[in-house]
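Structure in, sequence out. Go:
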């Protein structure tokens, strides 16, 4: 068996008594990293260990690092039961633990305190409002819930801080205030408020560092499709605009034609700003029809988007399936063939 123990979010004072007793009874401990305050205390008490910090220096990607740690642990486990310790709680932001749980190895989780409770307490944040826990080593801007509290973990050096900063700068002002939180809940706790652009300038970053991004106000989220839907719903609502309220699918037909013609002119004019505006006007027509459809109970924007995605995937079996295509002509032929089958 591999027993996995969490070392908590900070120093020895945060360690539950039961976890401390288990650590004291271990003959030899395996650690994801020795860079943790509890490890220094355990060293003083004579506990021996093998840490995997050098593996991080050996491989170029985190996936290969995690695979190497899993292999080392499973190899050692073939000889005897072992104990593996990780920062925080084993079930929070520990990819190696997830890989072990997916394997054939027998795994037992033995607690540990997550940093999240202390983080919410120190920042005076109530998670009932909604929050996201994100891995700084890899995330997509499209996955962000900007209206919720966002916590980025594993911001242990300037490179990881840049991984967080650069995508956020695409959607937030450069001086949007965020919080760098280190060793939260311990006697070494540091919470520093900084503008977003200074995030990777901060030199005090380590394995116990996270970044907290407060919920983004609506005025900074006008780029989201959700905001367009909210605006149209308001315009069509009881206290909305009389003109918007009386529009129907039929009355909007001429608008769609006019906006499409203006979009074609913008394409011919090679004017980027004009093109952005006219693309928005055409999108407005699509969203307007979807809003009317939703009010009438027939369809919604979600159904429009889902139908489109299903069609694109279905008509590109050479991208999303196993077919092979070498030329644009072959791709177009497949598109037409799939379209013909759909009509049948």
């Amino acid at each position: 068996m591999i027993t996995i123990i969490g070392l908590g979010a900070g120093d020895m004072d945060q360690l539950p008594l039961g976890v401390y007793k288990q650590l004291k009874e271990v003959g030899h401990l395996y650690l994801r990293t020795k860079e943790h305050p509890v490890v220094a205390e355990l060293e003083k008490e004579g506990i021996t260990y093998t840490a995997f910090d050098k593996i991080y220096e050996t491989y170029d990607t985190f996936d290969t690092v995690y695979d190497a740690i899993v292999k080392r642990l499973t190899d050692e486990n073939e000889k005897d039961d072992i104990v593996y310790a990780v920062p925080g709680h084993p079930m929070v932001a520990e990819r190696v633990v997830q890989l072990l749980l997916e394997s054939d190895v027998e795994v037992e989780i033995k607690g540990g305190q997550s940093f999240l409770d202390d983080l919410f307490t120190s920042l005076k944040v109530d998670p009932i409002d909604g929050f996201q826990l994100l891995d700084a080593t890899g995330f997509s801007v499209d996955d962000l819930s900007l209206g919720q509290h966002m916590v980025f973990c594993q911001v242990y050096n300037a490179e990881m801080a840049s991984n967080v900063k650069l995508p956020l700068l695409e959607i937030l002002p450069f001086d949007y205030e965020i919080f760098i939180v280190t060793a939260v809940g311990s006697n070494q706790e540091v919470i520093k408020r900084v503008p977003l652009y200074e995030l990777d300038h901060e030199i005090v970053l380590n394995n116990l560092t996270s970044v907290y991004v407060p919920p983004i106000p609506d005025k900074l989220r006008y780029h989201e499709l959700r905001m367009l839907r909210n605006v149209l719903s308001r315009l069509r609502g009881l206290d909305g605009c009389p003109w918007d309220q009386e529009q129907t699918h039929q009355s909007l037909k001429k608008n769609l034609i006019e906006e499409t013609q203006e979009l074609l002119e913008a394409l011919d004019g090679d004017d980027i700003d004009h093109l952005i505006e006219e693309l928005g006007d055409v999108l407005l027509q699509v969203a307007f029809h979807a809003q009317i459809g939703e009010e009438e109970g027939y369809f919604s924007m979600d159904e429009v988007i889902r139908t489109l995605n299903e069609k694109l995937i279905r008509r590109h079996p050479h991208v999303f399936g196993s077919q092979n295509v070498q030329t644009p002509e072959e791709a177009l032929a497949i598109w037409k063939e799939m379209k013909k089958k759909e009509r049948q």
